Amino acid sequence: MSVQIHGSIAQEPEREWRKAIGHGLKGRCPHCGRGRLFRAFLKPVDTCEACGEPLHHQRADDLPPYVVITIVGHIIVGGLLLAEKYADWPMSLHMAIWPALTVLLSLILMQPVKGGVIGLQWALRMHGFGGEPDDRPERQPSPHQPSPAQPMPGQPGHHR
Ligand SMILES: [Zn+2]
């Protein structure tokens, strides 16, 4: 993920990133905070139903899982160490609690975290959220468009 700095940013009003992240965490449009951000689990809407803000620019990609792994890892490892130190749990209880809690926390946190990441991207005008075209071809609102496989330049190919 790269932060893009465009020349026109200076003239545009600054977007409040804390507020945008807060709206995203609550699953709301980072712009107005009213419209839904997700149409299904982890599937963001293309445009806000309340204010019309285009949201298909989002490119949260794999940052939300990284953030969730960091949060859940700290909770689980910390809890496990505390339980080991202060409680005398049998191994079967450990095996019942920690894997289940890991899965549960990950599922609970993934969508809010993704919303927060989208809010930050919107506030920073990344990936076309500022109106400029992105450096990569824009993701179309309709998914399932397989891109044709292209050979990498410099790859060993057919030499005569
Ligand atoms: Zn909105």
UniProtKB/TrEMBL annotation:
Ranges where the record places region Disordered: 129-160
Regions crossing the membrane: 63-83, 95-113
Superkingdom of origin organism: Bacteria
Pro residues bias (residue ranges): 143-154
Keywords linked to the UniProt accession: Membrane, Transmembrane, Transmembrane helix
Record InterPro entries: DUF983 (IPR009325)
Pfam families linked to this entry: DUF983 (PF06170)
Protein name: Uncharacterized conserved protein, DUF983 family
